[in-house]
Design a protein that fits this description.
The protein is an alpha/beta fold. The chain has eight helices and 17 strands. The chain has two domains: 194 residues, Jelly Rolls (Sandwich), CATH 2.60.120.10; 115 residues, 3-Layer(aba) Sandwich (Oxidized Rhodanese, domain 1), CATH 3.40.250.10.
Amino acid sequence: MELATDKRPVQKEDDASIAAKRPSGTVLKTPEELANIVSLFASSDGWIEKVRLRAEERWFERLYDGPDYDIWVISWLPGQSTGFHDHGASSGALVVATGILEEHRPGERTCVIHPGKPRAFGPDYAHDVRNVSVAPAISIHAHSPPLSDMNEYELDGNRLVLRERASRKTETDDQEWRVQKWKPSNGTGVLSIEEVLSAARARLRRLSPDEAYEAMVKTEAILVDIRPEGQRQIEGSIADALIVERNVLEWRFDPASNARLPVATDHDIRVVVFCSEGYTSSLAAIALQDLGLWRATDMIGGFQTWKEMGLPTVPPSKAS
């Protein structure tokens, strides 16, 4: 990729001035470390409720602003994009929490960014990130040092031409940020299973059993039973539910997998996962979302609640 920048853009703050503002001894994060940071943050609890959708342009907020790195969350409606830009002297990383984004760089193939697959880069890296899908997307971004300047570019063939105006200050000039420190609630840096489950469910639009039944009957949603055979024989099953045990779920529904099921034709199929009581199914649904199946979700309460609500079941003696 060629940058048509005969003159270095005028910076509102030069690198030395920015560095002078950091506490002495600050060690900046590498792109690989930033990739780990955004991945861990995306799987944490407590940030998803801050997200908003904005029709006129992308919504964004900086959630953490430390001496060595910052963290942002951005929401994308279909058709929204960043335009070509860099991040000044900052290295960075991003990960999609839900939905699908595309990264465009002149002279390179389009990179489809699926959930859970971080992209990391060094200083002066220029790209255009877009939501070309039919569904909203949410992404987490981190920069080290914290983002202070960005340059915008126009595409001229396979070259990026710097826009005439000087690099713009980050979007913090346009909004008043609510900055908060983030860490797992137990203070150890390690998430508990309750926190992992809560973070997963924050990303899902879970269905009640009657909603799942209606989706299966009226919208051809695929109801997937991930319980092991022994559990189905004891509890019973749901007629017309597709049986795919948890240990092979991803391989059966990844459209790129050689072991995929015939129904796994693309990433747009609607999959509703259920287990016995609705715990394992939440984590399973997120695993499918991380493969790009953005409509995947699970059923609240699992088979037990389905049965309690009087919805049709197959008795244990006939369950496979």
